[in-house]
Write a structure and sequence with these properties.
about 70 residues; DUF1127 domain-containing protein; YjiS-like
Length: about 70
């Protein structure tokens, strides 16, 4: 079971806070990129008929994956 200490302030101070913030930002960017990649992969695996059934075309895949 995980335990979280909620008594400490959320904003860290000094260079450790900046490094932590950069790490969180990097992880967040990677997670967003990976989500878009998985969405593109799943949509690309569909047939043209299946895409048409959900109102998409192949040219829509990149736009949809970035939302």
């Amino acid at each position: 079971m995980a335990a979280f200490d909620t008594t400490r302030p959320h904003a860290a101070v000094g260079s450790a806070g900046r490094i932590g913030s950069m790490f969180v930002t990097g992880v967040s960017l990677f997670a967003g990129w990976n989500d878009a990649r998985q969405t593109r992969k799943a949509l690309a695996a569909l047939t043209d008929r299946e895409l048409d059934d959900i109102g998409l075309t192949r040219s829509d895949i990149d736009d949809i994956s970035l939302r």
